[in-house]
Hints:
Shape: globular
Number of helices: 22
Distance between the termini: 20 Å
Number of strands: 2
CATH class of the largest domain: Mainly Alpha
Structural class: mainly alpha
CATH architecture of the largest domain: Up-down Bundle
CATH superfamily of the largest domain: MFS general substrate transporter like domains
Amino acid sequence: MSDSGEFSLSVADQKRNGLVFMTSMSLIYLIAPVTYVGVLHATILDSLEASDTVANLPEAVYLWVTPLPLLIAWFWPSPQLLRPMLTWALIVKGAAGAIAALVFAFAPKSFWIPVLISHPGIIGITGGVQTMCLWELIGRGMTPRMRGLTLGWTFGIGPLFAVLGSCVSQLILKGDFLGMLKMTPIQQPWSYAVLFGVSCPAMLLSAVLVRMAKVPPVSASEAESRSGTQWSEILRGLRSYFLNPLIVTAAIGFLLTYGGTMIMTNMSLYAREALGEAPEKYAGIQLALRFSFKCLMGFGLGWLVTKMHARASLIATTSICIAGIAWALFVPGKWYLLGFGLLGGGELFYVYYLNFIVSCSKPERMRENTAYTNLITVTIGVMPILFGLVSDRYGLRASFVAAIGILAVALILVQTRLPKQPVISDRGSD
């Protein structure tokens, strides 16, 4: 769909959709310590003297529920359900945070472990639905140019909320943020109650703002294409994704780039070799650099989509990832830490690969194709292990070279096999 072609929504309605997308993503960033399952959940379980296996269960549960949003996309595909589905996903996510907060505040500690394991499951399901619906909203409800502007503003401003959320959570838990800000920490369990509890009003605010969203009416051609049985529609959706050469190529580039960025853990461990100090001493600085560079690069990447072409953002993000790893590999001393900033900016590849895939998708397939793309990321879980094996055998620097090689393959694939502008193809949908 081009900007010059007929589009059923006014510019004002498109801006409303952009505001819904930007606000929702910014609020996700703000409560990242809770919704980005892993560190906080494991820390609380560790304080309960749970085993390492139990401490890793929240993240495992989060991954295990990954297929469920896809089932939701299959069985409730109607565009008329987009707004209510998104609204209820946000309400349930907020309610899960509120219940967890109440358990921390008033229930015996024996209740904590079941809550900490079930909460990530709810986050995984509702977060998957939220992602599907938001991308369908800006896919259906915005022209490519307006979508590019929205992505630029969203991921230029949004990461600032992650920096703010990380800073506040660190102050609540420890009372100190990188030695620059200090306060009296909130005592346990109230600190946990506050962190989980704040996700409730944040998600309810997001749910209220969803009322502003405008979804274009279903076209006659789309209604006709949906006339088959449910199972025939599922098979059509699978063919539409996996037999579309542009989508498959973009998905392979996405997986390769994602796999290359899994070197982040080894880059963190490299602090011991590069600086002669414990890696955890610089964890806060690494986080600050990652999100700060996301802000700086978010605007520029959105500009690439609107002023040049969609493929340019894929090339740029992958190249930035390569630059970040190469910087850490060759720049000595504390300056090596800037590599985390570059790699953090390059992590926006996720956004622009999804944008490319959505732009290649028919309107009725946008929700499913987003779900398929998120689902196949489960295969990336093996990459940290592979990088660890390379590091154990040949050293950390060798694992950096391996990551650069993987990213270089992605760069060549994108440059040679994808068009500058994505196009919608009928291939694989019959």
